[in-house]
Amino acid sequence: MTPEALLAFDREHLWHPYTSMTDPTPTRLVTGASGSRITLDGVGEVVDGMASWWSAIHGYRHPILDEAVRRQLDSMSHVMFGGLTHEPAVELARRLIDLAPAGLDRVFLADSGSVSVEVAMKMALQYQRGTGRPERTRFLTVRGGYHGDTFDCMSVCDPDGGMHAMWSGVLPEQVFGERPPPLGGDVDAWAAGFRALAAEHADRLAGLVVEPLLQGAGGMHPYPAECLAVFREVADEHGLVLVFDEIATGFGRTGTLFAAEAADVAPDVLCVGKALTGGYLSLAAALCTTEVARGLSASDSGVLMHGPTFMGNPLACAVASASLDLLTTGDWAADVRRINTGLQALHEIDAVDVRVLGAVGVVQLDHPVDVPEAAEAALAQGVWLRPFRDLIYTMPPYVCTDDDIAAICAGIAAAAEAG
């Protein structure tokens, strides 16, 4: 099919994320990708400022990751995980336990980030049942969060300003505290209100679910690391399972390997995904403590009630281990610091707010972004961006050069001007 025919069929028949089927926004045809760049039909190579929604931290067509997939294909691409196991899954679990905050030594391999949060919430619910508190069925969280598009995950996303407000009245009703303060904000005042809310609802709460240090698709809000200690203290005081959703923040994005490390805090359950495979295949994990595992195993079912068909997919596990090896044997921290330095140029843009944390740069406008116009303006600067709401942002691959980051900043400036 010609590029024109491919795009015509796509427009008529394919749904894209958060896009109308009957009046879709324009799409671009990708014909290749390498390093920090994707190749678009009719445009050529452009810097991918999104790292394929924050996952392709090592860039595209990395020879080590490519080889990991090819090597795994020589033995098996998939085998069911029920009653069977295999070396790629065992090796990945070993690496994750070694890297994760202390105590997280039980690993559930899930299909996607959203599914891992679903599993974490089930862990919390079953833990409460197993420890004799079945009445604890609600979750505490904060406004401004986003945890995925599956059903229970939507219930802990921001209920008003988030993407799932239309499901009000259908989703389980959770308990929402105020969004943590911005960097430099008054943590004590926020903490007092959050502690009071937790105490008010404690006898009905199973767990506390948050994105540590940076709220992602709910609005790209960084907040002080001291808040993580508050979450840990509240969970301990009221017997809640503390879940850190690090799908966006894990593997170095905010400047520490896991955002939890910024406050030296360990959750009871840690969810990771996105960058886990370097953007090659869909895979996520929910790691929990032995205490949580034993508690939920004492529930009436005796087992964790979840088991995806593609759980522990060998191809995904193999490339995930290779990706983690690349991360830990390289100098990812220096790359993130270098990217952070380059993104400081965003502060020159006239905007409501500019936020830079680790390898994340956000420009907030005073109006909703015209996404097609903004994207075209960025493309004219040789950069692919995908703004949302009133935000133009970047979470680029760690392999970006200084010139790439300068181009991204120029692309964001152009998008802000056009959008």
Q: How would you sum up this structure, described in words?
A:
This protein is of the alpha/beta class and 419 residues long. The chain folds into 2 domains: 145 residues, Aspartate Aminotransferase, domain 1; 254 residues, Aspartate Aminotransferase, domain 2. The strands form 4 sheets. Strands 4-12-11-10-7-5-6 form a 7-stranded mixed β-sheet, with helices on both faces. β1 and β2 form a beta hairpin. α3 runs antiparallel to α10, α4 packs parallel to α10 and α12 packs across α13. It is globular, with a radius of gyration of 21 Å. The mean pLDDT is 96.
Summarize the structure.
This protein has about 425 residues and is an alpha/beta fold. Helix content is about 35%, strand content about 15%.
